[in-house]
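Risk mitigation, structural track. In case the binding assays with pyroglutamic acid fail to produce interpretable data, a predicted complex structure has been prepared as a fallback.
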Amino acid sequence: MKTLTSILTASVAVLGLTGTVSAENWDMPMAYPANNYHTENAQKFVDAVKACTGGELEITIHAGGSLFKGDEIKRAVQVGEAQIGERLLSAHANENPVFGYDSVPFLATSFEASEKLRAAAQPTLNKVLNDQGLTLLYSVPWPPQGLYFAQEVNSTADMAGIKFRAYNAATARVAELAGMIPTQIEASELKQALATGVVASFISSGSTGVDEKVWEDLTHFYDAKAWLPRNSVFVNSEAFSALPEASQKCLTDEAAKAQVMGAENAAALAGGFVDTLADNGMNIVVPESQLAADLAGIGETMTAEWLESAGDDGKAIVDAYKN
Ligand code: PCA
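Fallback model:
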């Protein structure tokens, strides 16, 4: 006790002398579970930021939509109710189609292509976010997206009328074009929606399928590799500018590392997630024949629709990606 008291007294004296008074505490709402690799990657990021700033910037993660639900996170950071957050930006494509750049079916279907597309979109995405008072720090891909069902399907005709969980406008559009009935539901509510029959299908990665133990409710995973959507971590621009320059540099440096590490983890884990689905009895199917043709047709329609709605910004992204 005596030692503790003297350490505290000494620290107070040091703080008094150097004038470094208050450490900054930030809240970081995230929508996905604490043990998902996106969240674990972010935990490493905030630990590294704490170390790099000598404890002057401490960020507390609130996983699983516990502080703000997925669909509230972006707004919360914009208005400063949280300083930093992670969100699937494609779910905000209704605000600006640019946010949907990572959910254009069959535009980028591998981890390598996804990184290339991210780099191509970065200048445009930065501009759109900056105009909203947000600064992008990093983004990390989900594994390739496939379709989950409670039955065998061999064409979109077999999907007619099935209730489908969407996570953004693109997934809702896939459902519509396949004759299904989409409802937007956050991942944190997905298990309940499947268990109660609110939905009986969805499109997502093996990662989310494993998180939600989807084999308890569904039977088939069609590994379509339609696209690799990204979770993005962004900060309120005013909160960022208010930090000492050294702390700003810690944030951006550690963010760059988190982006690389996150993508590497995603790629390393992707196959194992699908294996886990299979180990738990799911049928893993690579779409072919009519099903593959139907999905390709949906992809063509949606690519044209996205290019139309995203205008010059969309063209700039696709041109940069294809070069
Ligand atoms: N999982 C997230 C988004 C994409 C993914 O693979 C989800 O289903 O909410």
